[in-house]
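Shift notes (night). Ran UPF0301 protein DFR51_0236 while the centrifuge was going.
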Amino acid sequence: MDVAPYLSGQLLLSMPGMADPRFERVAIAMCVHDADSALGLIINKVRDDIDVRSLLEQLDVDPGIAPAVPVFAGGPVEPGRGFVLHSPEYEGQSTLSVGGRWALTATLDILRDIAAGKGPQQWLIALGYAGWGPGQLDEEMTRHGWFAVPGDSALLFDAPIDSRWTSAYAGAGIDVGLLSASAGHA
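Came back to this:
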């Protein structure tokens, strides 16, 4: 059952009172959502143990001009797997266009290009992802848990990290202070 058009290129926001603490107050950039699966990257939680330059060094990539910006905690699935969410003008090996709004690349080539100053204009690097099996996210969307808003590149790449969840709700005209942590029942 389709709850809404597929969510690739949109932001998925957890609702207050989310039962799973791993997803409390998260904003997820949805990169893949079809009948078989869904994959997104959390864009408002960072890892405290590593920055981009350190990650590049661990991968034996010369950090070059790459800034020492945070690496995002992309989600609980495969936390050692890396992804680069970036502006759509860059196309590398295996780059996936995401709803025409941004792109996703998960190869070392993009990291080398970022370090050399030849990468995308805007980017963030995440380790791990949020993933759902066939129909799982569609079913979760029918319960109290998730709210989808149009994707916004400025929110992904320019907004302060700790305000992305509330800013995404505000962009939809919603004051998170007025949201209930429990669902109503008729």
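Residues 10-178 form a domain with the VC0467-like fold (CATH 3.40.1740.10). The chain is about 20% helix and 30% strand.
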